[in-house]
Amino acid sequence: MKAPIAKGNLVISKKGRDKGRLFVVLYMVGADFAFLCDGDLRKVSRPKKKKCLHLAPTAYAAPEVAALYEAGRLKDSDVRAALDAVRQQLPN
Q1: What is the pLDDT, as a whole number, of residue 61?
Q2: Closest CA relative to residue 32, chosen from 15, 5, 51
Q3: Which residue among 38, 55, 84, 91 is least enclosed by CB atoms within 10 Å?
Q4: What pTM value is reported for the model?
């Protein structure tokens, strides 16, 4: 059974131009769509809307990123730092 995708989770894109990129889920719209950012190509100010079917969940989460987003204080550098910390742990 696949792990559910929720805000603060780190996911990998399975389809589209961004295939293989690591993202953090900022928020969900229903159970079908997630809004993602990576702080680099997809900034916090303009997150990517993507179907959950096109995302592969990872075992990692960044709850501090979700908390900062809800407080309205999230910066792109915070997202990049969280993703860089996880990229070092992921197998290539």
Answers
A1: 94
A2: 51
A3: 91
A4: 0.91
